[in-house]
Amino acid sequence: MRTTAVAVVAAALSAVLAAPAVAAPPGPGAGAGDASGDHLATRQALRAAVDAGVPGVTATARDRRGTWSATAGVGDLRTGQKRSPHDRYRVGSITKTFVATVLLQLEAEGGLSLDDTVDAWLPGLVSGNGHDGTRITLRQLLNHTSGIFDYTSGEEYRRAYSTKEGFFAHRYDTRTPQELVRDALAHEPYFEPGASWRYSNTNYVLAALVIERATGRPYGEEVRRRVIEPLRLTATSVPGTRASLPRPSSRAYSKPASTATGPAYDVTLLNPSRAFSAGEMISDSRDLNRFYRALLTGRLLPPEQLDEMTTTVPTGTGTDYGLGLMKVPLGCGTNVWGHSGGISGSSTGAGTTQDGRHSLAFNFNGDWAGNGRAVMEAEFCGD
Questions:
Q1: 213-240 pLDDT, tens per residue?
Q2: In this predicted model, what pLDDT tens digit does every residue of 128-151 receive, in sequence order?
């Protein structure tokens, strides 16, 4: 759910992990980390991201040796305050994994089936310009094979949030999910349902509306009740329309212009309703590691639903997409399961091995630079 001058959406894990490195003067070096020499490659990758122009990075990993955290760069360009391993930040499209988890829990309870059509739960909502909710299943929403247009790709949305003038004029606007869906349906679908794969944030807006119809409660309440509270994710929240970040946190920076060479603006404060269930959540690195580790080891879903979640379709990007979950093969042969998230001023990556024994979550507090894939490769394939 990323809106920047370079790309409106960096939604799948590969998108954030393959972000181009942009040349820039060297920045501050890496901050807190262990002194044993472990994770040396990861520390070097964090420094490289700052050297490439990212203001600051925070990362936390967990493996057989325990939990390790490190930072690089600064959290506040004005004061020079460093980033913290405890920073809370906007996680963007990582929200999608939480939404998919809740929907799969509802299926396990018999409340719905992934083979149900969208129209069965949201009668008449998905129609017009070739969109037909009677032919789209809930599974196709979760794995992005629905063909529904991505509302963040519309020209009006781009002008409102990807330009300097638009962002500062609309940063506090409240958008309803129905408005977001309506914006999407003003465009033709990408393809017939099930015919191909294309990432669309609209899919997860609709998935959350299905959760709300099935439970009678806001989707965020279901996420809290079913995932956040049982796992004791104390830094994780569903903010709704709240514009501020909870503390501790760093500032978030963006370059809302046609190139990434202009000035960086502080975009920390924004109304995340424009992302809704496609990317509004806030968390920290420890919580994200705990979440993905619990998910992949079966603490949140029965085996049948976890199998469904990890059944992937090809995306044509060298990675595969399951149900709110992406499988990313790294250079050393290791497969990492997780997601990425991007929203103005924040780029996040989180993933774990399928056995849950090794996990990493990191955040850039800038959305125009840095090579996140190098961070993942370094952690899972380095020392």
A1: 999 999 999 999 999 999 999 999 999 9
A2: 999 999 999 999 999 999 999 999
Q: How far is CA 96 from the centre of its chain?
A: 7
59 vs 55: CA distance, rounded Å: 14
Compute the distance between CA of residue 341 and CA of residue 93 in angstroms, rounded to an integer. Answer: 4
22-43 in b/e form (b: 16+ CB < 10 A) is bebeebbebbebeeeebbebbb
Q: Are strands 326-329 and 320-321 parallel, antiparallel or unpaired?
A: antiparallel
What 3-state DSSP class applies to 100? helix
Evaluate whether 46 touches 358 at the Cβ level (below 8 Å).
no
pLDDT digits (tens, 9 = 90+) for 266-322: 999 999 999 999 999 999 999 999 999 999 999 999 999 999 999 999 999 889 999
Q: Are 74 and 80 in contact (CB under 8 A)?
A: yes
Three-class HEC string of 70-98: EEEEECCCCCCCECCCCCEEECHHHHHHH
372: left (phi > 0), else alpha (psi -120 to 50), else beta?
alpha
Going by C-alpha positions, the residue among 123, 121, 161, 147 that lies closest to residue 202 is 147
Beta bridge partners, 255, equal none
Q: Which residue has the tokens 């305050």?
A: 81
pTM, entire model? 0.91
Show Cβ contacts of residue 167 under 8 Å, excluding neighbours closer than 6 positions: 160, 161, 254, 256, 265, 267, 344
131: three-class secondary structure by DSSP: strand
Active site residues: 93
Distance CA 76, CA 21 (A): 21
Contacts (Cβ under 8 Å, ≥6 apart) of 336: 13, 327, 328, 330, 351, 352, 353, 376, 380
Amino acid (1-letter code) at residue 161: Y
Q: Which of 128, 129, 179, 184 is nearest to 153 (CA)?
A: 184
CA distance 54 to 265: 13
Closest of 156, 163, 367, 368 to residue 258, by C-alpha:
163
